[in-house]
Amino acid sequence: MSAAPYEVEVFFDGDCPLCVREIRMLERLDRGRGRIRATDIAAPGFDAAAIGKTWDELMDRIHGRLPDGTMIEGVEVFRRLYAAVGLGPVVALSRLPGVSGALDFAYERFAKNRLRLTGRCGPDGCAIPRHAAG
After folding, report:
1. Taking a C-beta distance cutoff of 8 angstroms, is the pair 103, 75 a contact?
2. Cα dist from 60 to 8, 93, 99, whole Å
């Protein structure tokens, strides 16, 4: 019996401790079923251009890709990931009027401050080294 194709691929910052914890939690919930695919954009050799994005775009906010190649961004990536691992009721709540807007607002604030919030800023700012090609 062949494995079902993944439901969503997430492009995450493997140098972000919070991001890595979230991905690992989702992988545990996936229980080896392969419904999610996680690609570390901080890994040596990762090529953002191969997916039609720049490394800076991928670092600005979370991105995902569906099996048909459709790219998704922001909170929708989390919705797809959570649905793929069986947390549909959480996803349904996230789509409620008011809740949806609040989540979008909160995520945008987090994304803009992610480097500082995860301890990756120094006295000279929040520039991070590029591990990726391109």
Report:
1. yes
2. 19, 26, 23
- For the chain, helix, strand, coil in percent to 5 are 45, 15, 40
Give CA–CA dist 48/39, Å, rounded: 11
What tens digit of pLDDT does each residue of 74-131 get?
A: 999 999 999 999 999 999 999 999 999 999 999 999 888 887 777 777 777 766 656 5
Residue type for 115, please?
Answer: L
d(CA 24, CA 8): 15
pLDDT digits (tens, 9 = 90+) for 9-63: 999 999 888 899 999 999 999 999 999 999 999 999 999 999 999 998 999 999 9
CA distance 38 to 111: 18
